[in-house]
Amino acid sequence: MESEGIENRDGMEAVDQNVKRPGIVTKKMLVMSSMICGGIAFLLWAMLGFPRKFKNPRIFKDNTCPEDEIICPQGWNQINNNCFFQSEHEKSWIDGQANCIAYRGSLAIFNSENEVDQAFRSTQDSCPDDWISFQNKCYYFSKEEGDWNSSRHNCVTQRADLTMIDTEEEMAFLKRHKCTSDHWIGLEMTENQAGRWVNGTIFNKWFSVRGNEKCAYLDDDGAATARCYTERKWICRRKMH
Predict the structure, then answer these.
(1) What fold characterizes domain 77-239?
(2) Using alpha carbons only, what angle is made at residue 120 by residues 118 and 125, rounded to the nearest 5 degrees?
(3) Helices (H), 103-241
(4) Which residue among 37, 107, 158, 240 has the highest number of C-beta atoms inside a 10 angstrom radius?
(5) Name one GO cellular component term (predicted).
(6) For 130, which DSSP code?
């Protein structure tokens, strides 16, 4: 009887061990599954979530402008460092101010008579769509690229020409609106670096031009020259009509 009991206990222990083994295997499988799922989740996060935190550097393009640059909305005119808009409707002072505030502005404050003259002249004339007004002239900053001659031809077909640069204010305006791209301008340099504008006037060298090529363009550092057949964006200029 004792031997049978021993045999039975051995049998029970054998059964107990067999019963426990599947549980141990199941735990191992759960641990392995958790590790695999965790690894997959981490990879998905790395592939999808991580780039979002660094989205701006990855999608940065040459033609984006710095956030602190002044770009007036379409239909507004830039005078010095301010944007002006003239309403076509009559309102009380309070309603007019409320309307300006809705556009994140205020009723105009003029700092000089010249600013008043420019504001009223600019509202009497207008520029075509996609052109920007500045000091009674209209400017077009191309989105496409072309060589110097084809760029000038494009301007001429729009009753304009590649832009000249007459003042420091105009230079600052052009550099501000061209963003980070190079743009052809209406200046051709000669062998002795004398230079001539597209309207035939002699360049008086009031700003420096880098390089020893013929056709001039504008970049972040100012004006430079390149071979005329290279392709860049361009800037057209014409008077307001």
Answers:
(1) Mannose-Binding Protein A; Chain A (3.10.100)
(2) 95
(3) 113-124, 148-156, 168-177
(4) 240
(5) plasma membrane
(6) T
